[in-house]
């Protein structure tokens, strides 16, 4: 059974940092793209960051320069380091994995989500 389990969410003040982690289990994800989406209240889910099977990364314009993404192939984990957080980063953050090798808008697997709240 494939599972993606996020951790690391919480409440932080604007300007602060959080590190989200996603632990994948149930299969090997080394050939998968992995990444993060987020959904704020009343808004559609949106792409945040991705890292491909080769390690190349991509970011939404709104987070570029503030967020970094990394993965540990040996542990099937992916991390999202979020710095200089803004209130508009408040959302539920979802980990995703895509067998296409790049993160598409319809990943094969989703995590359950972790809440990130940034206070002003």
Your description of this structure?
By secondary structure, this protein is mainly beta. It is 0% helix and 51% strand. The strands form 2 sheets. Strands 2, 4, 5, 6, 9, 10 and 11 form a 7-stranded mixed sheet that branches. The chain has a 4-stranded antiparallel sheet with strand order 1-3-8-7, with no helix packed on it.
The helix/strand series, from N terminus to C terminus, equals: EEEEEEEEEEE
Count of individual beta strands: 11
The residue ranges in which pLDDT falls below 50 over 5 or more consecutive positions are none
Classify the secondary structure makeup into a structural class. mainly beta
What's the main sheet like? 7 strands, mixed
Strand content: over 45%
Shape: globular
Tell me the Rg in angstroms. Answer: 13 Å
Mean pLDDT comes to 96
Termini separation: 40 Å
Kindly state the percentage of residues in helix. under 10%
Helical stretch count? 0
List keywords for this structure.
7-stranded mixed sheet, mainly beta, 120 residues, 11 strands, globular, 0% helix, 4-stranded antiparallel sheet
